[in-house]
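queue> pop job 88
queue> type: inverse folding (structure -> sequence)
queue> payload:
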């Protein structure tokens, strides 16, 4: 199952949100915001689900953007 990735606004590095979802769910919650503890800069960030993207389990492949 794909997992949800976003980007740290401070370091521009990718962050695994540890939130496993599918495309239908992602589309439904795309206007929701998620808060997460950033592993790169240590701060707590808030982002829209719609600003995140899905990668498959192999990693490195950006497979979807929800707008
Ligand atoms: Zn950060």
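queue> result:
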């Amino acid at each position: 199952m794909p997992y949800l990735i976003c980007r740290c606004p401070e370091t521009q590095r990718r962050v695994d949100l540890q939130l496993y979802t599918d495309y239908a769910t992602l589309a439904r919650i795309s206007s929701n915001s998620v808060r997460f503890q950033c592993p790169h800069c240590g701060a707590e960030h808030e982002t829209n689900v719609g600003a995140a993207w899905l990668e498959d389990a192999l990693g490195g492949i950006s497979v979807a953007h929800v707008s």
